[in-house]
Amino acid sequence: MNISLPALLSQLLLGLVNGSFYAILSLGLAVIFGLLNVINFAHGALFMMGAVLSWMAMTYFNVNYWVMLVVAPLIVGLFGVLIERLLLRWIYKLDHLYGLLLTLGLTLLIEGGFRSVYGVSGLAYSTPEALSGGTNLGFMFLPNYRAWVVVASLVVCFATWYAIEKTRLGAYLRAGTENPRLVEAFGVNVPLMVTLTYGFGVALAAFAGVLAAPVIQISPLMGQNLIIIVFAVVVIGGMGSIMGAILTGLGLGVIEGLTKVFYPEASATVVFVIMVVVLLIRPAGLFGSEK
Fold it and tell me: What is the pTM of this model?
């Protein structure tokens, strides 16, 4: 098989862009599961909500992309706070299955609500003017927006990892999940901290949704196309592992891109094949802790 260097590099870039979405979405899932012990199946719907809110703001109110990159995650994060306060707080001591079923029901409600208004056809969202066009690197043409997606995702992912793993706030979060009574004795409001953690996790999904709006066709069902792969990424990286979610998401995106070059028929299943192999060898995931 003769493959030109520009074709190979373009597929690698596409894989890295997809991997950036996988990384930031799986990061939100890992944060929520690692700190709240909830399997958040509504993550894909909240990813979609971020993209659709951006489209609505542009279409109805002429609000630009850069504003919605901040506002959409805030809105979805506040919606997540309501979900946690009104619904999730009652199931923390129950089996994981209850959280999965509850968030699956929320997914159906959210997607059904948007589908009843906008249908299932795609909604067009234009690339920001500042990021339109591309850069000629000599061996390939690099679209500016795709380069921005990779950079923005990496910055947000590693900033989140640093905040959780290397700061006092992150230490409180981790301690609050292990021994909430002890942390409360130091004057920390653990229930509020848990609520804000869930809000932050879903805000990450909405941020990814805004990033995806110009490159992935916006529709009420767009989250369904990614959420199963993202769950596979979290399982491979290790449930609750922050760094595992980031590195696995990026790595699997690249592997998926290379598979499209050398064996396109397997590109839709390669992630799940890797998941099966990893679970057979290391059930806790590549970066998960064995208990």
Answer: 0.92
